[in-house]
Design goal:
Blueprint: E1 4-11, H1 13-21, E2 36-37, H2 43-58, E3 60-69, H3 70-73, E4 79-80, E5 87-88, E6 91-92, H4 96-101, E7 108-114
Antiparallel strand pairs: 1-3, 2-6, 3-7, 4-5
Length: about 130
């Protein structure tokens, strides 16, 4: 089995629905005004974004966890975009299909905020996930 890196992605309800429609196996294509896919490197940062931005903009925010083959991610250096906690990867939108091929296991919902708050698990995620 390949060495993996665990990444996190804060999303709103619309993006979550598209990920569910993929069978928890892919992120949706980026829109023309979104040339970069930004997964983050720690859960706390993802929770901040989901609570502060996704809830404000979409009424609910979710934190996703997924694993990616570490060798594949080596071409994308980590970038700090604020404090030390705010570390993310900048993956060009054109590389999303390649990212999909390097996912290891399903994408999981591990937390939800706003209108979609649930105590410990999200019913849509394949393994339940926990907050």
């Amino acid at each position: 089995m390949a060495d993996t890196t665990t990444l996190y992605r804060p999303v709103g309800p619309a993006e979550l629905a598209l990920i569910e429609a993929s069978g928890w196996q892919a992120f949706p294509p980026r829109l023309p005004e979104q040339p970069i896919f930004y997964p983050v490197l720690n859960e706390e940062y993802a929770r901040q974004i989901a609570r502060r931005w996704n809830v404000r903009d979409h009424g609910a925010g979710f934190v996703l966890r997924f694993r990616v083959d570490r060798d594949f991610l080596g071409r994308y250096p980590a970038r700090i975009v604020g404090g030390k906690l705010h570390e993310e990867l900048w993956i060009p939108a054109k590389d999303l299909d390649a990212l999909k091929r390097h996912l290891v296991g399903p994408i999981e919902v591990i937390a939800s905020f706003g209108e979609a708050d649930r105590p410990d698990e999200h019913p849509l995620t394949p393994s339940g996930g926990s907050s």
